[in-house]
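Why predict the complex rather than its parts? Because the way molecules touch one another can change local conformation, and only a joint prediction can capture that. The input here totals 135 residues.
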Amino acid sequence: MGHWRGGLFPCMTEVLAVGFTLPKKLILRRHSEFQRVYRLGKSIANRYLVLYILPDKENGGKVGFAAGKKLGGAVLRNRLKRLLRESYRKNRHRLKPGVQLILVARAAAAKEKCATVEAAFLELARRGGIFAADK
RNA sequence: UAAGUAACCGAGACAAUCGCGGCGGCUUUGAAGCCGACGAGGAAAGUCCGGGCUCCAUAGGGCAGUGUGCCGGAUAACCUCCGGCGGGGGCGACCCCAGAGAAAGUGCUACAGAAAUUUAUACCGCCGAUACUCAUCGGCAAGGGUGAAAAGGCGCGGUAAGAGCGCACCGGCAAGCGAGUGAUCGCUUGGCCUGGGUAAACCUCACACGGAGCAAGACCGAAUAGGGAAGGGUUUGAGGCGGCCCGCUUACCUUCCGGGUAGCGUCGCUGGAGCCGAUGGGUGACCGUCGGCCUAGAUAAAUGAUUGUCGUCUGCUUUUUGGCAGAAACAGAACUCGGCUUAUCGGUUGCUUAUGUU
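Output of the joint prediction:
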């Protein structure tokens, strides 16, 4: 890898400052939970991914990650879901609480790096208005 | 050096930061937190074979069906592996074989050809006789032609011309003898030839095979609601146990029991035909003995992200050391093991052939 002359990667900046975790209980587990967000939530998309948003004060904020079978084999889909989770994890502290999200990877994200996917997520989060009030 | 062939090895390394999974320890009522070591593959894949394990009856008899098919061995088992035998391919190293039976029977065998399987066959021809211009009758399987295949091959003799008609060699068949555990091989003798191919066509012979699969299966257990276990027993019918039959079993009776089902959770779930090393036996697959090790256990499914240094390859540049830029395949455990097949990056070694140099 070459040198990054402009300082640290965008992925690194917030992580070094805060260091947020993403425990298992904050991740959507059940088929029914996924279906509820898909059906009731609103969706926005760009070239790399689709974001489903469903405000939910009772159950609190949760997040799910998906990569369909059209994208490729198990290795590729696993990698995409890990990239999505990494993007969410590093920015979770900046988002509003009590919102359920699902991030779905699209074909264009298959060969991209973490920084690209994270930038795409941040753009969708801004358009969806789920950042915390001070941002 | 090039081409080929066989076998084997690796799947970038180290460090830092953030994060995830179950495990162990500590704190804690608990939730949770902290610390520690560990955490994808050679194919984890395709699900093509064979086991272990679980339930169905204890997995039983017969038919049907399916599979295997040279010999000997290895193994828990195999359509696997090892060593041979026999064929076939290649100059060679070496590779390939669905390799039982075609004189038990049935079927198929296109086209071409005169004729395609049981007294075989005469189209062009060759020979003899009659006639002598055409032709007719008889003999022939040597030559030509067709075909995947034309009743052994080839040579000499023989003859009107020919023919296993006779003989030598080769091939095949049968018998005998010898070698080998065996497939098979070698030698001798015989009648002279027995009559195409196809059994991933039916079939015959020998051997093997019960079914479903971890979503197997076991446990905890609300609403609701009547069941379960053990024993006994009859026939006509019915349900279930794998396709059918036999057989077994249920509904019937008696006794006993507190529990059965959907959903959710726990177990199954990783210590095993295990891995590594040494040593002994065997040509080898493999087996024995000794020592050491514990090495993923998720369930919308953990094993990731980023950076630095070094290493590999490619390109550009430089007199060189070097510098810069880029690249790194196929691919993700899901009860587990032995194989097969397919995908794919890089490297090492042996051998063979050809060429060159000494």
